[in-house]
Amino acid sequence: MRHSALALLRHALTGNRSWAPSWRDPAPKAAYDTLIVGGGGHGLATAHYLAKNHGITDVAVLEKGWLGGGNVGRNTTIIRSNYLLPGNTPFYEKSMQLWEGLEQDLNYNAMVSQRGVLNLFHSDSQRDAYARRGNAMRLAGVDAELLDAAQVRAMVPGLNLDSQRFPVKGGLLQRRGGTARHDAVAWGFARAADQLGVDLLQNTEVTGIRIERGRVLGVETTRGFIGAKRVGLAVAGNTSRVAAMAGLRLPIESHVLQAFVSEAVKPMIDTVVTYGAGHLYVSQSDKGGLVFGGDIDGYNSYAQRGNLPVVHDVMECAVQLFPSMSRLRYLRQWGGIMDMSMDGSPIIDRTPVDGLFLNCGWCYGGFKATPASGWCFAHTIATGQPHALNAAFRLDRFATGHVIDEKGAGAQANLH
Amino acid sequence: MTRLATGGLIDRMQPRRFTFDGRGYQGYAGDTLASALLANGLRLVGRSFKYHRPRGIWGLGSEEPNALVELRAGGRQEPNTRATTAELFEGLVAHSQNRWPSLRFDVMAVNGLFGPLLSAGFYYKTFMWPSSFWEKVYEPLIRRAAGLGRAATAPDPDRYERMHAHCDVLVVGAGPAGLAAALAAARSGARVILAEEDFALGGRLLADRQEINGAPALDWVAWVLAELQNLPEVTLLPRTTVFGAFDHGTYGAVQRVADHLPEPPPDMPRQRGWTIVAKRVVLAAGAVERPIAFPGNDRPGVMSAAAVRGYIHRYGALPGRHAVVFTAGDDGLRTATALRDAGAEVTVVDPRPEAPAMPGMRVVAGARVVGTRGRLGLSAVQLDSGERIAADVLAVAGGWNPTLHLSAHQGGRPVWDAAQAAFLPGTPPPGMVVAGAAAGRFTLAACLADGAAAGLQAARDAGHDGRPLDLPQAEDEPAGLRALYHVPGRKAFVDFQHDVTVDDIALAAREGFRSVEHAKRYTTLGMATDQGRTANVVGLAILAEATGRGIAETGTTMFRPPYTPVTIGALAGAQTGRDFRPVRRTPLHAWSARHGASFVDSGAWQRAEWYARPGETGWRDSVDREVLQVRRAAGFCDVSTLGKIEVVGPDAAALLDFVYANTMSTLKPGRIRYGIMLREDGFVLDDGTCARLAKDRFFVTTTTANAARVMQHLEYAHQVLRPELDVAILSVTEAWAQIALAGPQARDVLAQVTQADVSNAALPHMACLDAAFVGGLRGRLYRISFSGELAYEIGVPPEAAEALADRLLAAGAVPYGTEALGVLRIEKGHAGGGELNGQTTAGDLGLGRMLSTTKDFIGRALAQRPALVDPARPVLVGLRGAGLRTGAHLLAPGAAAVTENDLGHVTAACWSPNLQQTIGLALLAEGRDRIGTRIRVFDALRGHDGEAEVAAPVFIDPEGTRTRG
Amino acid sequence: MRIPCPFCGERDAAEFLTIGSAPPPRPAADAPMAAWHDYVHLRDNPAGLHAELWQHIHGCRQWLRVMRDTRTHVVAGAEACRR
């Protein structure tokens, strides 16, 4: 059933009683051509593009809980492609282009809102670093503008540029960046994949990966063994645990990242703003809540919750940037588990096990990558070869030294 | 007026005037805004989020979903404040919100007509055509209609602070259980903090009329408080909400220090954010009454029954004279009694066929409310029998939800108790016990006993032995309850604020959003500012019904901080504005300021960037003058911000050989060597100098930016990797003021300020010595150069810095700042922040030959990875050309401007007053082979696309004769 | 979060810096490249008890080996790396 204003009206007039489920709730088959482990944004997008781009529809997505229950449902909803390094920029720009057509592609309004992403800078050296990045973006065909303080002031009323500590000197703006309604992204991909024949198996936890003579045969689950020719892992946050079932040890640590939302207020910020003198990114949702994020807590965690020091830090930064926020209240917070890789960039690749593919290491930038990650992972699984866009996201790059280290922080997961 | 003639805990001798939507009213000290509004006969207070339906006051405290107002004005305006928690003060100003043009006539209420169209998830299904319309048309409309109150636009004039406290026992909630717990714990001598979100202590005892030991319960409250106030280890924190349980007994709380005053006195913060570390915690947060979902249950005048009797007893405010009480159990009958005793005409609607008769009122047994009437407030109640009862207040008692939130903040899922129709705490965080109504013990006697036992046990667990309390006598008859969550029909609201109806939840289930988390996200149930405290259990019950599961199987969503919304300012504390982060200033800061310096932030440091002189029209004038002065005569620069580390001990040299890529153990005492450190992954960590002061004593400098990280790195290398080494590492950055003196006349200048022999023989390039200075100062001289000139660094104690600077000035040297320093180093081709960016190898920087091949050192192995020794890597070169700016990218001339053709970027650029042209440093692929050729400089970001000439990275004195002169 | 520093007593985690997993012993100087790659990059990353390195940077500056459960954050113990 296609969604449209007319359909909505028809349902409304009949008391909304005939809406069909958004996706089927099938029983697992004994075997599939391809299994995607992880019913989050990346797994669902992968399934969708496997079916849509490659005609592979004998696919099941295995989700241990509920669809979209991982990081796609616990992030700050930011989309952008303002990357520095050539291994990253074209990939994220592909993602941005997919975002731009996503609603029509999926027939689902993910509320993609290109309201701009503005990275503030506070010193000449930060400006120089952003200039380097902005020019790299331009070379990759990505929009980028360097704003001075006056332009920032005009664009973001309420922003205090003149603080006594770290006044704002300007910003790097990507106008095409913005936000998307995170849950709707998962639901949109799920619904579209389901309609193309993909089985979405919720409450189906993978407990083992069956491998014989170096080749994957399928997975053990809480609902029994499911065979497959190809298995793709898209379980960011838990990648190490799942990959360990295949005997893999990875360049990844799991860390907690907190995010916050304020009580809803009338529109006060129309763009996504990131602070350059502390860890803060903030935007305002369509409902009116200010959505904040900061730095990771810094310690390994699978607990999906963080601690007060980061709460304090984020709120200090928020008030420093927007003094009128001091009288608002924060309403909710949550924590997601991040796959922190050793260079801050993801992995989409084959593995030493034949037929087993890996999509992981998204650090805290996975949400924006969702469509391109699915697009490229589907390509990698379907063809057995990486797409040009994910060619740099190799698992063996740490051995060869071809790291993609945007921050230059080195092999320490919590610095990325 | 509906204020009762007598009764309540208000002070009728202290009237308080206030305005609501511009009209003046009067209440009393002890009122909340909500009780004062009710006492003035106002029922319509707000509008809902989506349909803009008229809303009144539902509850009594922080669970309030409906009565949200904009409180105060100007920079103090705060949106979404619950009228039920706002203490009335003289001159209070409040406005209704989320309505236009007025509360009584809100044009957005037209949304209500489209209710079926705006069902759960409607926005995901539409607004997709035409594609450009979402951002241009639909989204702005939605954003304007959504949101609640308006944030202030002026700066907040109030201040905030954060406080840390440690205690043996933290008691959360000062109702009967909490008071008993606090008393039992405090008598043992334990350090107790009792936190209560209300401004008055007593909990439900303030709202109910109960007896303890045969006397009014409030007498017992007063007696307990009197004792607690006299115990030295007890801290009472009223107006303090414990909002989160964090790891290892850490609790976040927020204290509303001055919100009950017109404005905070100068010595008082508005609010205070607490971090409380408690050995044990008694959670005695009570319980909140839940509604019943029935059509029209959101109309102003429909209220929580427990709140209705609270308004009567605590505030002497009668919410209505014609009352209907719709109760799923005995508890609502207490409200019926209170209403009757206050003079209201009361009808009880009780679904139980066996509902007991009540004196002085009509009881309709076996009946349910199926609808309400009234435009902006309740006028009549519709029963399932068809009967319509005229009423101005409808008190609804749907049962109690224990306030167990803090018990679940660390993942302990609540457990459904079907007998009590309530979720009870599961496994609380370590160190916490839950007592009283929060643990599902609903009679007063049980609360007192439970609290006393929990408080005693908590004190004992924290190491204080006490004796059990003598338990007071109190009512112990549980209120009967027959769970009732909803009544069939449209527009039956579950989440009042977000306008989530029974139909919305059913629709979500129909569409496959059957998981409780899916249903929450799809419908936004429980995501409003009241966080579902009234809505969630009813919503879960409806979802359970719609999916054919039980409530236990349906489960709850995750509980996370904060328990109630917390003021952002209180969490930021005083760390805002000037005090956002500490400032580090060098010993020469004031001196530099007096000599015309302007300052630049460099991490936490503030450094002099140039020293303006009268007549100079711009910063370039100053910087050019300073640079030329250094190249032609002598200048001095405050480099105190460089990291300075002493490495001391018999194995100091061995440790330095391990952390530096080059060798330090061969350095002779009194000599200095330039060194680079790698990370273990083979990339450059930092560079600096290493002076050997004595056989077992080295003085290491780092860049300003990397000082802390290098210190950690050295300590890591020692303590973790080479613990067998006998060495001590000490940061001495603050112990020395360090001044670089550079220029052809540097030696002459130096000779005027020191008694030491500074001849080339006594102090050659890369040598150091202890020195005495004019005026009796002691310090050190290091002959090292960053500028490429004859140069020294002078280290003196911080208190001597100004005297030294004065003497250098008098001797003919001029001060120069970081900008000139930058120009000098670019002219000399020294690596700086743009090149030491964590992405470069020693080879990239032209320092590959420094990597020792004869010893192990950190980073040695992985620096040999193929990609790190790839000859195609960009390497450090110089550039000359107009328009060069840092951050431009480099392309082969004629090559298309695409990522594939990107050859590198400009890492630093400046105007060289010596060369009279713009020069730069760059990391350029095959850079050494390109020296002498032209390169395209791509700077589209700043509208420049030009060419430059590739040069060797050293522009000035490549042979180094000046340095050695 | 609280970290039990063996020198300073239990202190708030904000006083510490952590770099994550405690690495295995550093390979010998002549170890093959693969050993170095594993040492620097690969992590066990368990959901459960985890050996990790914390430095008490705002205290005694000692590097500590802390045993902590990554599911519950419960700390089983901490000891100095250099004793």
From TrEMBL, chain A:
It catalyses: sarcosine + O2 + H2O = formaldehyde + glycine + H2O2; sarcosine + (6S)-5,6,7,8-tetrahydrofolate + O2 = (6R)-5,10-methylene-5,6,7,8-tetrahydrofolate + glycine + H2O2. Its EC number is 1.5.3.24. InterPro entries: FAD-dep_OxRdtase, Rhodanese-like_dom, SoxB. Its cofactor is FAD; FMN. Its main location: cytoplasm. Transmembrane segments: none annotated. This is Sarcosine oxidase subunit beta. It comes from Falsiroseomonas tokyonensis.
Automatic annotation (TrEMBL), chain B:
InterPro entries: FAD/NAD-binding_dom (IPR023753), GcvT/YgfZ/DmdA (IPR028896), GcvT_C (IPR013977), GCVT_N (IPR006222), Sarcosine_oxidase_asu (IPR006277), SoxA_A3 (IPR041117). Keywords: Oxidoreductase. Residues 588-855 form the GCVT N-terminal domain. Residues 168-409 form the FAD/NAD(P)-binding domain. Residues 491-573 form the SoxA A3 domain. Residues 878-957 form the Aminomethyltransferase C-terminal domain. This is Sarcosine oxidase subunit alpha family protein.
TrEMBL record, chain C:
It comes from the Bacteria. InterPro entries: SoxD. This is Sarcosine oxidase subunit delta. It comes from Falsiroseomonas tokyonensis.
